[in-house]
Specification:
The protein is of the alpha/beta class and 484 residues long. The protein is built from 19 helices and 19 strands. The protein has four domains: 3-143 and 238-306, P-loop containing nucleotide triphosphate hydrolases (Rossmann fold, 3-Layer(aba) Sandwich); 149-219, no CATH class; 310-398 and 468-482, Rossmann fold; 403-466. Helix content is 37%, strand content 25%.
């Protein structure tokens, strides 16, 4: 986890949360909206990134969240959102919400042991509970909030020839640097220029770089949306709530990564709470595990899974087009071991599988369950000390210890390392008191003045050569799972 994410996690710790983020949302319980019944969403981090297949319910959660607060008494030009704004009833949609629909919001208070709970429910045709909500500025950045001015025929376009400049709003140089880092090129200046035409007024972003000045009318959608979103995040009152709909839209992958890093930064500085929907594994990977969630919808209902890995999301959202079988393992060492075993035994399988290092045994089990729940073909190969559970799709490496221990305590492997690096494996591990098997390869590589990956692959290849027949059953199980 990055330093900024660690700082944010500390600020968001339950005892510190209200002091830093005010009456932010701790939990949302959803019942009766667009087929979601009895789902609880825990907001474990200032940023909550919700992923899932189209139609799973990501937008529904964001829309309900934006309806959680009253209009601040100090605000003037601000309009709050209500449930009716997002769930309209019509002949085309006669029942988007059930008769007993309700949303239960849990807010932080100055006593973390006694959070405030407010229920919004429908009594006849009206909704009750709004008056008990805390106050907060909330902003919904959906797909239509920023539409390029040239597409919506803004007055700066249709009245371009007779446009009058009014007041200019400067952007802080540090904010300009943050915009530049996201987009990937340097700006000399960025500002918002007030404009008017026939008594109508508006504002248009203007950027200058490489000796060329251009307005939003000549910006790409991605650049213009970043300009709009960053400006709103920087100029809104602190401790605001933001709902972002798929902020990766029209951004290249590095821009998505930098945007996620920016969200961590702005939450740390300005103590916003952000809930975003996304299909971007790049954004998810840039955020800590407690920020990631996945919505799964099937014939049994809608569920939410916490701390989903970016690799899992990428596999699920690909819909199986990339590879017909996903194999989950615990860590990078296990991934390399399994890859090399398959390469030596049945290398054609490598073209039809995807191997993901997920985390510990519980994370691996959960990953297989989630992948299968979404219709993916998935199994796991767990460490030998954990064992197998074939009926649940959980296979196991041979042996009875973690793969790192099995590999580096193998007699032939130790002889090879002694011959190549003049290192006694037993002595090194005893000298350094290595109790964590994940550090074995690192300790040997450090002593050998070699790259850890080189040592790892060298040892794995020798190990496979020595016990090759012991992998036959595992390869047969993988082949059966992939249908090969």
């Amino acid at each position: 986890m990055s330093d900024i994410a660690i700082k944010l996690a500390s600020k968001y710790a339950i005892k510190n949360r209200y002091a830093n983020f005010g009456p932010c949302l701790r939990q949302i319980q959803v019942h009766g909206f667009r087929g979601i019944r009895g789902m609880t969403v825990e907001l474990e981090f200032p940023i909550t990134a919700i992923s899932g297949l189209n139609g799973a319910g990501k937008s529904t959660l964001g829309q309900l969240a934006i309806c959680a607060y009253r209009k601040p008494t100090t605000s003037i030009n601000y309009k709050r959102q209500y449930v009716k704004d997002f769930f309209p009833v019509s002949p085309a949609d006669p029942k988007p919400i059930s008769d007993d629909a309700k949303s239960i919001y849990t807010f932080e208070s100055d006593d973390y042991k006694r959070p405030q709970e407010v229920t919004i429910s429908r009594a006849n045709s009206a909704w009750s509970g709004y008056k008990r909500q805390p106050e907060r500025h909330c902003y919904y950045v959906g797909f239509t909030v920023y539409i390029p001015k040239v597409e919506r025929r803004d007055l700066s376009v249709y009245g371009g020839a007779d446009l009058q400049f009014t007041e200019k709003r400067e952007i802080d140089p540090q904010v300009i640097k943050k915009m530049a880092r996201i987009i990937g090129h340097r700006y000399d200046e960025v500002s918002f220029q007030g404009v008017s035409h026939k008594a109508k007024e508006s504002e248009i972003g203007i950027a200058s770089r490489l000796g060329y000045s251009y307005s939003e009318n000549n910006m790409g959608f991605g650049e213009g949306r970043v300009l709009y979103t960053v400006d709103r995040l920087e100029t809104s009152p602190e401790q605001s709530l933001f709902i972002l709909e798929e902020p990766e839209t029209s951004l290249h992958e590095n821009a998505q990564h930098e945007f996620a890093k920016y969200l961590l930064d702005v939450c740390n500085r300005r103590h916003h709470q952000i809930i975003l929907s996304t299909h971007s594994s790049v954004i998810l990977k840039a955020l800590p595990p407690e920020a990631r969630k996945l919505i799964v919808r099937d014939q049994d209902g809608v569920e939410i899974k916490n701390r989903i890995s970016a690799n899992q999301v990428r596999s699920i959202l690909s819909g199986g087009h990339a590879r017909p079988l996903d194999i989950c393992v615990e860590d990078p060492f296990a991934r390399v071991l399994l890859t090399e075993v398959i390469r030596s035994k049945k290398k054609e399988l490598l073209k039809v599988i995807a191997i993901h290092d997920i985390g510990d045994k519980d994370a691996v089990r959960e990953a297989v369950w989630v992948l299968r729940k979404t219709g993916k073909n998935a199994i796991a190969v767990r460490d030998a000390d954990v064992g197998a559970a074939p009926k649940d799709g959980l296979l196991s490496f041979p042996g009875n210890r973690p793969p790192e221990v099995e590999v580096f305590t193998n007699g032939a492997v130790k002889k090879l390392i002694k011959k190549k690096y003049d290192i006694d494996v037993n002595w090194i591990l005893d000298r350094d008191d290595v109790k964590d098997h994940h550090k074995i390869a690192f300790c040997i590589a450090t002593e050998a003045e070699a790259d850890e990956e080189v040592v790892r692959v060298l040892a794995i290849e020798k190990y496979i050569e020595e016990i090759t027949n012991e992998f036959d059953a595992l390869i047969s199980q993988i082949s059966a799972a992939v249908g090969a």
